[in-house]
Structure formats: C-alpha cells, structure tokens
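Researcher: Re-running this chain for the archive, since the previous output was lost when a drive failed. Same request as before.
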Amino acid sequence: MNDSIKNILTIDSSSNVLRLALSYNGDRLVKSEEPAEQSHGQILLKKVDALFESAGILKTELDVIIVSTGPGSFTGLRIGIAAAKGIAVALGIQIVSVNLVELAAHKLQHEEDEILIIVPFKKDEFFVVPVSDNQYDLSRLKTLTLKNYIENCPDKKFAAYGIDLQSYFDNIAHLDYSEKLLYDASDLNIIGQKKIEQGSFENISLLEPLYIQKSQAEINFDLKNKK
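Model: Regenerated structure tokens:
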C-alpha cells in the first residue's frame, strides 16, 4: 500500500443492508452494518459520520473511497455511488470500485468447478454470472426467473447473495456454496486496497452501478422524453 494512503472509506449499498468500513492510520479498521431497506439515503451519511467519530479522524483526512457497484438494489447503489462521488469531489480524492462478482470470485478462488453467482434483482428474478478459478466474465451476466433457473441450471453449483434457493428447490444442498459469500465491508476493503496498489482508480464522472437492465424510473423517463 502506498504509504501516503492511510485512511480509506468503504461503502456497500447494494442490498437492504448498508455495509460501511473505515480503515485508518494504515492498520486499524472500524465498520458497521445497518438494515436499510429503502432508506439508504436517510442513514448513509449519518453512519459515515459515526465511523469517523469512532476512529477519531476527520473526513478531510480521507485518502480514497472504495464503493460497491453491485449488481443489486438499483436505488441503493445509486445512493451509495452518489455519496462516494460527492465526498470524493469535495475532498479532491479518488474512488476505487469493487463489484460483487469479483468479491465472489475472490471468496471462491480455491474452488475448481464453475459456480453460478446469484444476486437478487427484483421479485422472482435475479442476476446470474458464472465464476471459476478466480475469473469471471461480466459479458455473461444475465437475469433469470426462478422458472428459467429450473429449466437451464438444475444441476449447477451456485452461490447466492441474499436469496435462499434451497427454500425453492429440493435436494440442492450439495450444490449450494452460498455460505462462502458471507461478507462485510472489510472484505470489499481488502479487494479495494489491491486495486489501489495497482492504481486502478475510476473516472468519477463515468462511474455507474453494474446493471444490465434499466430501472423502471429510467424506462419511464425515456418514454416521457419520446412523447
């Protein structure tokens, strides 16, 4: 790690749990997890302030922000990324992004077989992308319904974030690697620090959530503009 980078804020608002971490002074870390549902915007900045207070450092001492780009909750991701951008621009610092697929690939790096990573998208629909040998290809990211999954992936190994597929299907416990995906913001911090070392910073103006379908809000906006 660059000796000049000591204080790093990590934000993950990809689900109904807001995960935050602040590593500081080079070797210390505080973190928090808070149920958010649809209220990320109401609690995010308050929780960030609480982390800085707990660490005993000022926001102006922040060096880099690590932010999750999902896939996941469209609204939550928008709020988290907007907050990261706002803080970064105000302080003149850089952002590193980490997506949940690369986090999964990292956590499953010792598994030899291909495993489907599953992330909730909306009711009865989820994102699916395969990983193997710590590698993944986001061009293979797609959405499936439960019916599609039964038809196309009945015997595939899988690891799911925030969805219990065993409650939908019988006799698949031997295929379920979901426990290996349990994480908090410190896990994102580890991956983000590696990217910082590599100089893999984002263009703040171009940073967007990882998703493959427009939200209903975007669809409505496009329809309105076409009239």
